[in-house]
Design brief:
The chain is mainly α. The protein has 2 domains: 150 residues, no CATH class; 58 residues. The chain has 13 helices and 6 strands. The strands form 3 sheets. A two-stranded parallel sheet has the order 1-2. A two-stranded parallel sheet has the order 3-4. A two-stranded parallel ribbon has the order 5-6. Helix 1 crosses helix 9, helix 8 crosses helix 9 and helix 12 crosses helix 13. The radius of gyration is 17 Å and the shape is globular. The chain starts with a helix and ends with a strand.
């Protein structure tokens, strides 16, 4: 069995456990994987290929703006490709379905050139129902669910529901309140000013990745 087939089997098993648990996803960030920008240092230190020193260096570099930047960091820490592949079954920097580059999409385990093409073809993505319909035509629903873990559809700051906002890793009820309070949102600068009252600049930058103003 190839390395990716083995890895994909593990990912599908995790996805099956999520379905069995009865969880229902309402938001715009795919479920199942940790956000590598948020994993606590102690948990990072025991992930594949990691050491306490690498985990500390990773924390210092966060937030990573993209999975490309994160991948470059891991390679710079001399992690083997096998370790990186195994890490990406546990944590990842999610890829924006509407703006993700070819380089980013190719770092999604098992995505390949086909998903570069399909992700691009159906832009703009507006819902998981659309993603399920279009991507499952090519790879079936189980593989569609697996790919969903690695991507996100940005939430519209001016119309996002509580469920949409909660789906953003690390947002929580506080950001539901703050995102709603400052509507209508008009600019990134406004977002940085208002949300920067509650969290530091690094966290503002991390949250900004998951939103759009429309």
């Amino acid at each position: 069995m190839s390395r990716y087939r083995s890895l994909l089997a593990g990912a599908l098993f995790v996805g099956a456990l999520t379905v069995v648990s009865g969880s229902i996803v309402h938001g715009q960030v795919g479920p199942g994987l940790l956000d590598a920008n948020l994993v606590p240092e102690a948990e990072l230190a025991v992930m594949p290929g990691m050491t306490p020193a690498i985990a500390k260096a990773l924390i210092a570099e966060r937030p990573f703006a993209s999975i490309v930047d994160f991948n470059t960091f891991l390679q710079g820490q001399k992690l083997t490709q096998a370790h990186i592949d195994a890490f990406y079954l546990k944590a990842f920097i999610h890829v924006n379905l509407n703006t993700g580059t070819r380089e980013e999409i190719l770092l999604i385990p098992g995505a390949g050139a086909r998903m570069v093409r399909e992700f691009g073809e159906y832009r703009p993505w507006v819902s998981w129902a659309q993603f399920d319909k279009e991507i499952s035509k090519y790879v079936g629903q189980p593989e569609t669910d697996r790919l969903k873990q690695y991507v996100f559809i940005p939430v519209n700051l001016n119309t996002a529901t509580k469920e949409d906002i909660i789906s953003i890793p690390g947002a929580g009820n506080r950001m539901v309140r703050e995102f709603n309070e400052y509507r209508p949102w008009k600019t990134k600068e406004q977002f940085e000013k208002e949300i920067g009252k509650y969290v530091d600049a690094k966290e503002v930058a991390r949250l900004w990745r998951f939103v759009v103003i429309q």
